[in-house]
Amino acid sequence: MASIRRRKDKYQALVRLNGVKVYKTFNNLKDARRWSIYQENKINLGSELETLNKSLSLADLLRRYLKEITPEKKGYERESQRILRLLKEPLVKKKVYLLKTRDFVEYRNYRIKAGN
Length: 116
What we know:
This protein is an alpha+beta fold.
């Protein structure tokens, strides 16, 4: 749990969670709160948070999923067909960090209109 206290004209954020204790001093309250949330998430995940690889496309993720996860499933044949079909769409060429909900809505609407 995080606690933030005022010390003179600064703010000290203290996070104590699962036996881990970290603290840091900030000039403003907003930064202290943001850091506290980040640290709590980091501790809960049990490892360093990873930064997103900006060269990663949706196609890369789908191929990895097809290779690593799909073969373990009961309906792997049908799922493989669906993923291979999806890999032919222009949507999958986009970088993951650039994808928005709007992109998926547009793709859904396209598929509904096409009837396939």
